[in-house]
Amino acid sequence: MEVVIEINGSLGKDEVISLYRSNGWSSAEKPEQLMAALKSSHSVVTARFEKELIGLANSLSDGHLVVYYPHLLVNPKYHRMGVATKIMQAMSDIYRDFHQQILVADGKAIDFYNSVGFVRAGKSEPMWIYEGNEH
Question: CB of 17 within 8 A of CB of 28?
Fold first, then answer.
């Protein structure tokens, strides 16, 4: 399977909403805000298979020292095929010289992020004020 990874490429609203819905993420119910958030991201990495958007990740950053990865999602039809690993490799390449690369992982995602080099940050605990049911 040939997956095409692109950095800061164009995104269509319908394809983004479809991807988020396929993962059950509540941000799909706020399409205007979601698209604005992605547009305002420091970087967006996409994965496509035969031109279909099958995955994406975005980053928020000060541009010098710290980068935060709020979203990484892959269409469930393509889970366990290395797509997320390729996306995170692209992000790691962009931010390889940064002092901190940060994300919040939960559930089954923890093992994945460990596999691509992330570790728990000392004794820190993720905290949030969140108005959603899922992601």
Answer: yes
Output the domain CATH number for residue 35.
Answer: 3.40.630.30
User: How do residues 11-27 score in pLDDT, each as one tens digit?
Assistant: 999 999 999 999 999 99
In a domain, 120, yes or no: no
More confident residue, 129 or 55: 55
* Sign of CA pseudo-dihedral 116, 5, 76, 31: positive
The answer to whether position 110 is within a domain reads no
Pairwise CA distance, residues 45 & 72, whole Å: 9
Closest CA to 100 of 124, 73, 64, 127: 64
**Which domain covers residue 45, as residue numbers?**
4-58+71-96
Tell which residue, 69, 75, 57, 58, has the closest CA to residue 15: 75
In percent, how much of the chain has pLDDT > 90?
Answer: 81
Q: What is the pTM of this model?
A: 0.90
- CB neighbours (10 Å) of residue 34? 19
Give, as one character, the DSSP assignment of residue 51: T
